[in-house]
Amino acid sequence: CLATLIIMLVGDTYTLINYVSFINYLCYGVTIIGLIVLRWKKPKIFRPIKVNLLIPITYLAFWAFLLVFSLYSEPIVCGVGLIIILTGVPVFFLGVYWRNKPKCVNRLIESLTCWGQKLCFVVYPQCGSAEEE
């Protein structure tokens, strides 16, 4: 969110659209790769929709072409898009991977989450304990 605000203040809207579209296509491709890996490693799990593997493999061929073409034609935009994605890695390690956090870190994360919910009207904020209400 902070990176988006900085880009909006510094750059123009078309550049932001290019960043977001590159990030979206990258995430779509990684999702399809995950689908193929799961079909290969866990073929027996339940799938509500099962398609022929030729469809995701064909999609990945076109995806790879578009991704390589994007990297070739606009390497700076793609590099900034990758940096934007990588800003989420410390957040993941702080919020999800680190299991035995001190209580002060948990309170900080909870207050930031509540603040973000209020700011963006994402979900109804449920800050604090039930006894306070």
TrEMBL record:
Top-level taxon: Eukaryota
Molecular function in Gene Ontology: L-amino acid transmembrane transporter activity; neutral L-amino acid transmembrane transporter activity
Q: Name one GO biological process term.
A: D-alanine transmembrane transport
* Keyword Transmembrane helix (UniProt): yes
The species this protein belongs to is Urocynchramus pylzowi
Q: Which UniProt keywords apply?
A: Membrane, Transmembrane, Transmembrane helix
Recorded protein name is AAA1 protein
Q: For this UniProt entry, which segments traverse the membrane? A: 16-39, 51-73, 79-98
